[in-house]
Amino acid sequence: MKNLNFHPAGRHFLHIPGPSPVPDRLLRALSYPTIDHRGPEFALLARQVLSGIAQVFQTQHPVVIYPASGTGAWEAALVNVTNPGDEVLMYETGHFASLWSQLAARIGLKPEIVALPGNCSQTGFPNSWRRGVQADLIERRLREDSQHKIRAVCVVHNETSTGVTSDIASVRRAIDAAGHPALLLVDTISGLGSADYRHDEWGVDVSISGSQKGLMLPPGISFNALSERAIERSKLSTMPRSFWAWDEILQANQAGSWPYTPNTNMLYALVAAIDMLINEGLDSVFARHQRLATACRQAVHAWGLEVQCAEPSAYSPVLTGVVTPPDVDADGVRKIIYEHFNLSLGTGLGKLKGRMFRIGHLGECNDLSLLAALTGCEMGLRLAGVSLSGSGVSAAMTYLASTSSVQARYHAP
Amino acid sequence: MKNLNFHPAGRHFLHIPGPSPVPDRLLRALSYPTIDHRGPEFALLARQVLSGIAQVFQTQHPVVIYPASGTGAWEAALVNVTNPGDEVLMYETGHFASLWSQLAARIGLKPEIVALPGNCSQTGFPNSWRRGVQADLIERRLREDSQHKIRAVCVVHNETSTGVTSDIASVRRAIDAAGHPALLLVDTISGLGSADYRHDEWGVDVSISGSQKGLMLPPGISFNALSERAIERSKLSTMPRSFWAWDEILQANQAGSWPYTPNTNMLYALVAAIDMLINEGLDSVFARHQRLATACRQAVHAWGLEVQCAEPSAYSPVLTGVVTPPDVDADGVRKIIYEHFNLSLGTGLGKLKGRMFRIGHLGECNDLSLLAALTGCEMGLRLAGVSLSGSGVSAAMTYLASTSSVQARYHAP
Amino acid sequence: MKNLNFHPAGRHFLHIPGPSPVPDRLLRALSYPTIDHRGPEFALLARQVLSGIAQVFQTQHPVVIYPASGTGAWEAALVNVTNPGDEVLMYETGHFASLWSQLAARIGLKPEIVALPGNCSQTGFPNSWRRGVQADLIERRLREDSQHKIRAVCVVHNETSTGVTSDIASVRRAIDAAGHPALLLVDTISGLGSADYRHDEWGVDVSISGSQKGLMLPPGISFNALSERAIERSKLSTMPRSFWAWDEILQANQAGSWPYTPNTNMLYALVAAIDMLINEGLDSVFARHQRLATACRQAVHAWGLEVQCAEPSAYSPVLTGVVTPPDVDADGVRKIIYEHFNLSLGTGLGKLKGRMFRIGHLGECNDLSLLAALTGCEMGLRLAGVSLSGSGVSAAMTYLASTSSVQARYHAP
Amino acid sequence: MKNLNFHPAGRHFLHIPGPSPVPDRLLRALSYPTIDHRGPEFALLARQVLSGIAQVFQTQHPVVIYPASGTGAWEAALVNVTNPGDEVLMYETGHFASLWSQLAARIGLKPEIVALPGNCSQTGFPNSWRRGVQADLIERRLREDSQHKIRAVCVVHNETSTGVTSDIASVRRAIDAAGHPALLLVDTISGLGSADYRHDEWGVDVSISGSQKGLMLPPGISFNALSERAIERSKLSTMPRSFWAWDEILQANQAGSWPYTPNTNMLYALVAAIDMLINEGLDSVFARHQRLATACRQAVHAWGLEVQCAEPSAYSPVLTGVVTPPDVDADGVRKIIYEHFNLSLGTGLGKLKGRMFRIGHLGECNDLSLLAALTGCEMGLRLAGVSLSGSGVSAAMTYLASTSSVQARYHAP
Predict the structure, then answer these.
(1) Cβ neighbours of residue C124 under 8 Å, at least 6 residues apart?
(2) Residue C1 pLDDT exceeds 60
(3) Residue A24: its chain C contacts at CB < 8 A?
(4) Interface test with D, best of A2, A362, A371, A405 (most D CBs within 10 A)
(5) Which of C104, C234, D197, D348 could cross-link C111 (Cys pair, CB 3.0–4.6 Å)?
(6) Is there a common fold for B13-19+282-402 and B24-279?
(7) What CATH superfamily classification does C13-19+281-402 receive?
(8) Would you state the pLDDT for residue A413?
(9) What ipTM did this prediction achieve?
(10) In this structure, how many other beta carbons lie within 10 angstroms of the beta carbon of residue C396?
(11) Which residue from C5, C31, C413 is facing A28, i.e. has the nearest CB?
């Protein structure tokens, strides 16, 4: 059995858009001794986790926690509010929206995909993969559905494959304007904790998220934040389900427990992660990521490359997609960067394979982390023979320096 | 946000039958930095994990790993080999067998429960909860099913609620003797890694297990070990499924990846756990637990109390159920022990609530760990006013001393 | 290079009288990221450490912290208050008192040893190694020193080699009664944090301690708690010194720094250790160890063996020395116990080599930890062929059960 | 008691010239459970450490390990080979050389300082603080010492306060050329493990080092590598000593032990650190640091600032001293960088206070770590109003990209 206690010379720079680098404090929390999940200490832990995670979703309603990774929470959201064979309207913003619709089909639903038509003339990318959700397309489709066969509208808040963040409140308004009873299900797996997200204010019925992005944890725990309507709907749902079923979990949670063994050590780390976010202040966290994302785009522009997101109001604070020139294999660039500079970047997924790479600036990212990643990109692009129009790093430094301030330092109580 | 970095004075003794105490080495492995699950290091990790876990199941066939806790693997085993509405035959050995059949019903199957009839005259406990699987009852039922409506036979290898370990090979023989095509599904969640388990030799089609018992990890990762027949059956299964579906996972595993984000940090710890088991030697591990279990029963007998398992050939090497006298509230005893001696024991579950407690001696347990637990039990029983016929600790010491030997010490390579 | 990430099957039981088992929380604290020892975070840390450690010594005066193990603090105490060639009076309570006097000689002092004369008729051990400090012998010697050549009186508070705790206040009274200006230097390396110790109230001039005993840390940090007189004396001392010199340290400490690089990570763990002690309450900590020590002696008596300490008022709450019968090699017994039961005990040191072993019950020890150790001892003694008159474990359980209570549980703020 | 589990938002960048950032693997090693330092596991550990550290010093002779920080090893080297009042010749390369001579005086030696005369016309800095050891000055002085009163020649290999690395072999040649019996004592506290260092080949008698620089550990452990002559000399030394005395340590080491309690957990981490260095290959490690140092100087030059070291052949691979313009307070710049960018740099020490800052690129530093630090410096210098002649980051990127290669990745066995 090979020893995994590996350590290449020097620090690895993990800048994929998730899993994001796990802060030392959370790694330590993860290694607290496992305790009896039916004992009194555990109930204290459970209560902290449940109230804390609701703060992060900005909701007064229950949040269901699954000892499972994020894809499970996608399935969970659907099976609790649908009946077999139901139609669900899914807006295609990118690869993950597309995967979610495939999942819906596999569990016996009828997903209908809405998307902006056509391809980008320059890049050949689908137009819909370069812009946020177009709420008017959803509204139009819902108005056509006079029989209300569509059970739910599914959208991705922050599309991890492209770096596009959608206006969720506009989707809520579209559904309401259409007078349609469909629930609003939102995937904020990569958004939560780095991009502003307001479950209650935006009228979301089920918000889906995971641990390994803005929450800065390793993968392995995921969430469904609920609304009253979602809970009511779940009581009528005939979709067979057990592990994902909300009812038993909501009931057990009232006593600080779960109907089956929770993943205790991830909960330890989750409490610590929530504490980090709340103490920095959610608004400060969101502002930090907006600033880092702006700096990152300044770099891309200075290089003379194109940002994947074509709609400035939808730029993601979580990651930036960088389109490589037509004759450059983006994965070749990534490989050079990885092998020469110990930096991991995100690959182009699905229809974007080989045409772009993604720079994650989520989670605990700060000015120098981002700049380190940008230096690796700039050197790697040059090594790959990509002709750059200027120094992206210099542009990013100029922006960051001009917007920097004395950082509030946080100490745990 | 409350700080969870708590530490009551002195070491806590965790002797519930899972989660078992996580060895320091595994806690450290859990805290390795999270890496890119699509990068080259990860593929190395995946290959080690997949081949290593197969060794632990003693199988040449694929083992599916879920980034989810054990209950999910129960559901996974069923949804991959059944069609909606299928009948499944489930043998009731205790509370967990019972919960599994409830899960089966919730996901749209028709579970039929087989059990030994009647209650124990002394304790009032169901007879079926004090003995292992009676394969002849299964054979008889299968012979009656001439139309082969029963899709699967489900049994629990080591019943965590009672401390009874069943003879799985006898169930295989019963199915074969009946000439019935039902698959054999076995829950060895609490058995694997502490009790001998042979997926291939015993002819199991799907073995279900989890991380937090004999594998000594925190909860959060679970398994389906497969057979050829199970894989074939899964291709025909019409049960809607996505997260739990084997097909995509088996395919991705061939390239050292998973179709969705795996829980990387648990995989780090899993590699280390497998390494510990393989280096100690599975046979040595099983012998260690058999010896500890015998010592534990010697203690119970010396106290004048009854072991929950009434069938010596089915005594569990993983845990021992201790029946308290009729007038003694077992949970009251547990509370005293917990509060006075910092020792956590398992509660009586379901039909056994308040009538028994469970002593876990699984995972990294050794002579002094077990004896520490037994001293806590003995003192707590006395404090609770239970009249004991002798010192269980003395009996256990006598047995352990007489069977002890110089321990081989293991060092990682 | 061999991998040290070893883990023999099952938990190791470390019951030497130091290093004591390091609680998980302290191991985690030890692994916080190292920071700039001249930066603002560090100054916060320094201030907490300096005020916290004074609380543990029960002093209002400065405590000097050395990034060095305990032996260094012995040397430090001497070199700061003496001149070359000075006489120091050292009371021999055992091996460590003896080593300290050798150290004094090596650094150019003239140690004079005071001890009870004669040997124990039964064991042949020196009488002085079985009893606490006899303050009258010290007083008598000081009275004879009319020229006040004796610069300091050195005594060991808790003699780690024997399990004898001396009455320090009586030594102070003796010095005062003799009207002698000698300083009182006390080694409480193994006492501090487990046995009651009052630097100010007892009138100690220099208290010496280390990290790896009652403070529950690994070895590597040590202390000199000072008095006003000690500080005054140090200003006149002509002993050449630099690393151990108090002056620069005391001055730098006022600004939250040290004159040379402190061992930052040990300071992290030290803050956490102090927090554990203060939150449990020093009185509760001392009472816990007294109770555990009593239980341990009950066990020794029940075995029919002799406790090394022959003076009940001097029984150590930290460790218990167990005298083996004349024909039994104590180290052979220890070896059996270590190899069969994964339990480390203290060896007989110096004049006691092979004649006794030592059971540590310091630091984070609690009822079940101690009982685990006692079961290992009892089984090992039997395996070694030692004839025991009864079960020590049973005796200890009887005592512990009868004196147990619901434990206050501590959570960090 | 305040909780130290602090974590400001985002990763801290520690680029002082020591303590250097402790790699995760070493932090984990530091948290292995403490064991009996007289038991068999410990002896294995000791042997590995002792042979491994000798490889790092490139010596066949013994290396004495102290459970104390580096300043202690300075004192140790002197007290083992001198008699009270001896003369020692100390070459002043900077602040640490100066501190060492103060230490020598405090312990009763007569240090004589040799240095290049005069100050730099531009910066006003002492010429001797901008250049390496001038061996001819040493040779001249030794030739004058016809009575051989000078007991030892003391030089600093890598002067941490300035970023100047001296040619140690030339000092050996100078001593030999003078036919002088003085021992050669070399401080390589900040050099070892990052800068090439050859104890045997260069004819050093005592090499002094510490843990928190190139060895990548926290502070708290230090070293004296010896020569035959040093050992012989120590047998004649009349300097009073105990804690620092080599004799007992060398003797105990032969049995894999120490005469007093070693700092076990630091030894765990030390084994892992040595393993990292040996597996990367010492030559590769040294080449990595030379390349990083060159990149750093390219940045300084591009900014139009001056490197503290004025002698190209003496440029340090460990750190780079950056001289700020006459009207710029270097500590003000450092403060801005620290508060805005979470980056710690070294302050100007002693005579250089406020006139320069130091960038550490020792230990586990790699391309992106260094570039992150340089971006912080460049932005901070601009924020401080320092006029820069160009982008140092761009210059460093150009150099690093042009000299980069696919990195060999290391996995522990």
Answers:
(1) none
(2) no
(3) 32-33
(4) A371
(5) C104
(6) no
(7) Aspartate Aminotransferase, domain 1 (3.90.1150.10)
(8) 36
(9) 0.96
(10) 29
(11) C31
